[in-house]
Amino acid sequence: MTLQEKLALIVRDSRLSPKQKSNYLALEADSSLPYLSISEAVTQAKSTGIICDMFEGNAPFKPRYVLPDYAKFLQQGSDYLELQAAQDLDEALNALTIIYHHVPSVTNIPVYLGQLDEILMPFVDGLDEELIYRKIKLFWIMLDRTLPDAFMHVNIGPSDNIICRTILRVDAELKQIAPNLTFMYDPDITPDALLQVAASNICECSKPHIANYPIHKNAYDKQGFGIVSCYNSLPLAGGANTLVRLNLKEVALKADNIEGFFSQTLPHYCQLTYELIEARSKFLHQESHFFDSFLVKEGLIEEQRFAPMFGIYGMAEAVNILLGNPELSEVASEKPSKHYGHNKVANDLGHRISAALDSIVKSTPVTYGYHGRALLHSQGGISLDIDVTPGVRIPYGTEPDPISHIRALAAHHQYYTSGISDILTIDETVKSNPEAMYQLCKGALSLGFREFTANVASNDLVRVTGYMIKLSDIANFKQQGSRTNTTGLGAEAAANTGILNRKPRVTSHEQSPVYAK
Amino acid sequence: MSNRLSTLSKTASVNQIINFSCVDGPGSRLVIFLQGCNYNCKNCHNPHTIDRCDSCGDCIEHCPTQALIMTSTGGKNTIRWNSDLCSECDTCLAVCPRQSSPKTRKYNVDQLLEVIREQNPFISGITVSGGEASLQLHFVSALFQAIKTSDELQHLSCMIDSNGSLSELGWQKLLPYIDGAMIDLKAWQQETHRYITGRDNHKVFRSLKLLSQHNKLYEVRLLQIPGVTDFESEIDALASFLTQLPCETRIKLNAFQHHGVTGEALTWQTCSKDNIERLASQLTARGVKPIILPKVYI
Ligand code: SF4
Ligand code: SF4
Fold this sequence. Notes:
The structure holds two protein chains of two kinds. Chain A is an alpha/beta fold. Chain A contains 19 helices and 16 strands. Chain A has helices at about 5-10, 20-30, 40-45, 70-75, 90-100, 115-120, 130-145, 160-175, 190-205, 215-220, 250-255, 260-285, 295, 315-320, 345-365, 400-410, 435-445, 470-480, 485-495; strands at about 50, 65, 110-115, 155, 180-185, 210, 225-230, 230-235, 240-245, 305-315, 365-370, 375-380, 425, 450-455, 460-465, 465-470. In chain A, β4, α8 (about 160-175) and β5 form a beta-alpha-beta unit. The radius of gyration of chain A is 22 Å and the shape is globular. In chain B, α9 links the parallel β10 and β11 (about 290). Chain B is globular. The N and C termini of chain B lie far apart (about 45 Å). The chains are: A alpha/beta, B alpha/beta. At the A-B interface, α16 and α17 of A face β1 of B. Bound molecules: iron/sulfur cluster (2 copies).
């Protein structure tokens, strides 16, 4: 298809809103530019699907993820936006509503809305519970309707406070796909009763996602961090300038044996990944003028707090290939097996690969990084990934029981500083027993899980990697399109990866801004 | 006493252990299914847990992976199952003339405690089920006593899932160590109960009363089989009995399905969502609460 034909298809598509059409047109324009200059080896690795730039565009003019310091914004106001410092809750919510429209990301919509309980708590004095509830509820509805993208992400916790509780209440009540929600849990700060509320919410609507606060906190400096988009943990007042990911399955296919994989193949492709990271972040930092924006001038973000994310996926396939295990079918998943996720030898090899990646990423300097380094990320996949499993997850349909599942993967979590998403699908009997979800979550976090995420079978609202979709929306999408940008991605994931055929589980999918009819 | 008991009972025959269940008591539970049952329910959906294997060896030659072998110690033959070789094809279950299973494992109390310790961070408690768990009473009470006297495990709740046939004396042995029991009431009338299970239900009623007097009756389960059970025809009597139970006791309705069922019961009609909701509303109208309905109908 020529570029013009593709553009013509986009403008004629009956399912897309004018805004969605503009987005797709812009993306096509972006990818019609010549690609940044990269070596023949990287071009080759890119075109054969070993290395992937996540369709961020051929000449990146905005970072992938941006995490402004919203607390500072509320305290100082903004010259550029002509806003005074917020004086009360209404002004704070209004100011946030405004700035969100000026925070870019790869999706064109902010992926980070802030640690909302912490930044709004200074404004609740003297307000009663019901009033706060009404204001938060309207704010929540506004977010879902005006920024229709489930990569948009709110953080709450670990402390127990009225905003945190109100957000949990409103979120369970409205069951919206947006915003996505992370609840920070710290056993020393968070009361068990509050974690129980969060666990009940998961049973209701598969949200929130629970983050192991102490682990994330220790990975960053005093200025802090935020969880954005789907499970990406990044420095606050900074973000990710780019995300390049490596397909471990393809890397394993290039290796002669396990030792060759560790000594040659893996280091070689990591080096090519770095070359692409360097080319992409250099363009953004040196040529795009993004860092001249008001966000930088007003101190809401700092250039040196941006880091590239070094993403990996296809761990399960890589391990099975290196061990010579044939593909495991869903039918055989309950049987004893030598496969990744089920067998100690396979799981240990996986952990060894993660440890090797960790030492490469920690020892390889980058020009634009967090303390001069990229951050390792277990990438949740995109809707175009076929026959390869996201991140370090166990392939869909072959997962063992939830506890064995957690045990098989826990040792990976220490390595993936910028996030790792293992999604447990729990059978719907848990709905009448949220305490079971609570126990499972606590157990997982105590074993070193960085993040705990569960989908409950039969909920309409389910998670596709990090963002949420409604199964009922997908059913309608084919005919009518959707108001929500991510529904199209979910529909595509459903068609390509068969998520809906099995026990409702989750696919892999972070962002795939590619127009597909 | 604990030592004496565990030496006395030695081992239990375990059919299966499930690491994580959310339907067998409060919170997340490790469930231990013991082999052997004294009822013979037509609707049993796990019939190979009923009889004990007598090591006749008939299944050995049918196993495609040589996971079954006969060993003999002191002239006594015992069948051994090698789980590493087993492909879970279940041929052995299909060919066993006693409808039993060679795939059971013997555990002593210490070995089970080891399993429990490992799952400890993930669970709220332990449930023993069956088969009929109370048939291995000494073992169960030794296990629960060991849990309740261990510093690191005593927070775990200990529940038993039973058909209610245990004698009063038997319950007295368990009461100090259990947090609650889940009892099946399979039918209201004697004849119906006998038709379904092959046994009377006097003891079941006695167990229900005894447990509720001691505040240990966590849940009563009614399995609705349309046209077979008599809950609807006996609704008044049933409801007035249930309303006299402590108000915390959960009344759980289960819907009969064909999954795992063999023989005559396969000709019975399965229970629909409508049917179970009708039964629930008849009970509610007569003041029974709280009623728990199934989340899934499969
Ligand atoms: S299920 Fe039974 S017959 Fe089949 S492999 Fe295992 S032991 Fe053998
Ligand atoms: S399982 Fe059945 S066939 Fe096999 S040894 Fe035991 S009683 Fe005999």
